[in-house]
Amino acid sequence: MSFFDKIFGGKPEEGDTKSFWNMIKSEEDLEKAIQQSHKNRVAIFKHSTSCFISKTVLKNFEKEIENSDGQNVSFYFLDLLAFRPISNKIAEDFQIRHESPQLIVIENGKAINNASHQDISLSLIL
Q: Coiled-coil regions in this chain (predicted)?
């Protein structure tokens, strides 16, 4: 990763992804997340890898998760630049206006909460 990518939020390096994230790279992955929401809450973090604000919010959110007591939540991550059609599908299916960064909380197949930018917090999920 170049110096400018580190400062301005370039694509994460392979080792940058935290182990608690389930990656959404296909409609099948999204469907798995929705099915998982019938067992426990699901949080989908939509991230723009080219946005410094999104990168900052992501890092702060990941720190919250790491410092939490391990609630029964499944965390999903969507690189919305690489998988924009899936991001659009989420917005359409859940009737939530697309924003970035964005956190969408799903329970029993329905969006029960969402937030963007500095309003993203673990408290939205628990």
A: none
